[in-house]
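Recall that a protein's primary structure is simply its ordered list of amino acids. Everything else, from secondary elements to tertiary packing, is in principle encoded there. The following example makes that idea concrete.
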Amino acid sequence: MPQTQEVRLPAVISDRLLEIPDYQRPYAWANKQLEDLWEDIDLLGPAGTHYAGTLVLRDVPGPDDSVKSSMDDDGDTLRHCEVVDGQQRLTSCLLLLDRVRRSLETLSAAGLAPAGKVANNIRSRYGMISIDNAWIPKLRLGSELNDYWVSVVLGDQAFVGPALIAGQQRLKDAVAFFDAKLAGLRANTTPDEEFSRLRELQRRITDGLGFLVYEVRSAAEVGVIFETLNERGRDLSDLEKTKNYLLYLARTIPDGRSDQLAEQINQAWSGIFTNLAREVGDMDDQLLRAHWLSTQNPDPRAWKRIASIKTRFDRSNYISRDTRLIPAARADEEQAQAWDRLFADVGDYVRSLRDCSFFLAEMFDPQANYEAFDSEADRARARIHSAALRRSGVVALYRPLLLAARLRHPADGEFYAQLVDLCERYSARVFVIARRRANAGEVRLLRLAYDLHNGADREQVLSEVRAALWRYAPDERVRVFLESTDEDWYLRRGHKYFLYEYERSLLAPHEELPPLTAFTDSPREQRTTEHILPQHPEDNAACWWEHFTEQAHASLCHTLGNLVLTLDNSAYSNKCFVAKRGEALVPGQHVAVCYAQGKLHQERLLAQYQEWTPDTIRDRQNALAAWALERWAVASPETYVLVDEEVDFENEGTEEDVLALGIADPAQT
């Protein structure tokens, strides 16, 4: 089986001749990868170490199942090894070392004798080695690049040819990149200072970078190790990557706070994983996103997942300039302050994130205790309004705002319950009824979340949410959609939520109703919406066609006034209205499947109609509209707070933002 150990570059190179097989990708690093490598080296400090990546090496077989080997002209035996993985970082490190060698040779030619000795040592250990009087590279690239690598990059020959191929151009660009960095390193220095900096750079490359080396013996094991590294299990989530990065930062603190901060991080993540254990989907990453938007930056376009977190906690912000490759005079207490800042920044972040994971779990828990709230009445209202918000089908849009409310005012249950209630009204009016784009108002809501977290007045926040709601769904627009007979409500998943809330309004005290999922997520979902006027009446069904023309049928069949929630519509079929209506159950009469004996209040209310006509559909729809305007009533703000903002209200956010909200189409809310 593959063997692994973490080693430094000299141990990788010392007793091996490395070669990159032709089936591997040619050199492909661009400026971004090179810049990352340079920054890793720059931030190491005089005694630091950094995990540079994985190398997978395979011995090249020789005769009689032995390992192919060569003896150099100094008498040392070198194994031939293929670089199965990690060739990009290995090539880049050796290329950088060779550019250091050239700078040292320039110093030597200027009269600094020790520089020449070091340059020769770098070349013999990491560049070219003599075997049987022939100069062989310690790392041989694939056949397309090796001649350019040996003669131009490691050698002194000029390129002669029609044009550089892609891999050669990448190597040339890498040479130019590192030469520019080295020029900056040497600028405005004495020869002795330049020599000292180049030696320190060499040390960081050879002694500071650590490689996790897997040694495999056969082609079969190559497949095993790739499966282990790339295939088994799921990819790390951004939440897990964040933990690993913060632990890495904690390790850089040189005193006892390193272990203390690492323990805080581990405990926070233990709580986070426990809090989110019952949730499904990508809730880990949704927590990161919502927390970030409410506490760090409300612009969803600037959220780049783990990259945003690394930028926020850029380790260069916590490393003293006097430990960099180009040092700057800086007092020791400034570095001490940087460690203090790192300890505080990361500690505050992980505590806040852990708390948000708990608040997020409460959003999804029908029995949430809300122990932080001052009164049981506030706790009860929070549970009721949270359940209604979940039923609306739109929750992610409001997560940053709701998390900000809990973080800033953890004990104010009255404010939280009001805010959740307002969010549910927003969903019902803006998305379910007015059919706005699924992220309508997101830009403003995120800004309000950020402002609230940073101390904005609570009443002002509530007022501005109402203003946003009215910007997208004022009473006039809501009434038009509710009363219109041109709207196809049946195709909207939201019609079940609408009718479910209507049913809840008809319940007697302590009367129970099956959960909304019984109507939306069951195998019989299609049977839980009843068309009172059937979708497909029989051609000879005079009881229907005497009241409806074909045009009227097509226009009114899927309107809100013709839909009723039921537990199973199959028994109603295409019967005439009189048969569907039936009679109320009285002693001595058999139970029948009919509206009058329906299990839901809204079914039984249909029994008050003697016939079903276009006028009765409109009458019922107007009654439902009046109920909805009262159920989801929102006081009109005196002024539209959002009108003057430079925001495209119809097309806010990006496609990724829409997907992050968990809604693909407002009609499917």
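The longest helix spans residues 332-364. The CA atoms of residues 283 and 569 lie 36 Å apart.
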